[in-house]
Amino acid sequence: MMRKANHTVLKGRFKSLLFLMVLMVLVACSSRKKTVSTSTAARTAIAMSNLKSKPLYRFINDWTGVRYRMGGLDKRGIDCSGFAFLLQKNIYGNELPRRSSDQATVIRTKNISQLKEGDLIFFSFGGGAVDHVGIYLNNNYFVHASTTRGVVVDDLSLPAYQRTMVKAGSIKN
Fold first, then answer.
1. Residue from 54, 60, 67 nearest 86 by CA
2. Dihedral sign (CA 47, 60, 68, 162)
3. Residue 1 pLDDT exceeds 80
4. What is d(CA 10, CA 56) in angstroms, rounded to the nearest whole number?
5. Which SUPFAM superfamilies match (predicted)?
6. What are the helix and strand counts (H, E) for the chain?
7. Looking at 87, 132, 136, 168, which residue is catalytic?
8. pLDDT band at residue 41, thresholds of 50, 70 and 90?
9. Is 132 known to be catalytic?
10. Beta strands 77-78 and 165-171: pairing type?
11. Euclidean distance between the first and the last CA atom of the chain, given in angstroms as a whole number
12. Are 121 and 134 in contact (CB under 8 A)?
């Protein structure tokens, strides 16, 4: 009888220990995720705070989170070229064509290390012609209208952007 009682106690302790170990792993994983997203958010906030143009800062804040809508040009939804079109017009007084592939033809190409606030960055996610545009901010950050997340500030050094970036530069005047 004593053996059975000891076995039951050990079995209960084992279950408790196993439960605690699983709980520790879950807590560790969840805290790691928060650290990564907080770090990304902090770097994005630093890029925004380093903007030289306060009107640009206000424009981005005003549009952040507006959902993506192909052909959209207002707060109900906007696409990437529409966002670049409005930003360039309202902040810098520049006239741009409406489509990203046409916008890519009116820039003076620069090396990524030469980009300045307000320069345009073009991507080809489809593998051929230019099909996406963003606006360079600073320290490898840019703002664009993402098809999945709407208007956001993103890190240009992410592999998805490095693989697909095809051209960058300033508007020819």
1. 60
2. negative
3. no
4. 65
5. Cysteine proteinases
6. 5, 8
7. 132
8. confident
9. yes
10. unpaired
11. 93
12. yes
Residue with tokens 């805290």: 31
pLDDT at 24 over 50: no
From the candidates 79, 135, 144, 152, give the one annotated as an active-site residue. Answer: 144
Sort strands 77-78 and 73-74 into parallel, antiparallel or unpaired.
antiparallel
Band (28; pLDDT cuts 50, 70, 90): very low
Q: Which helix (H) or strand (E) holds 75?
A: none
| Residue with the two structure tokens 């952040």 | 64
User: For residues 151 and 13, which has the higher predicted lDDT (pLDDT)?
Assistant: 151
pLDDT tens sequence across 136-167 = 999 999 999 999 999 999 999 999 999 999 99
Catalytic annotation present for 7: no
Could you tell me the CA-to-CA distances from 68 to 39, 87, 118 in Å, in that order? 25, 15, 21
Alpha-carbon gap, residue 83 to 65, rounded angstroms: 12
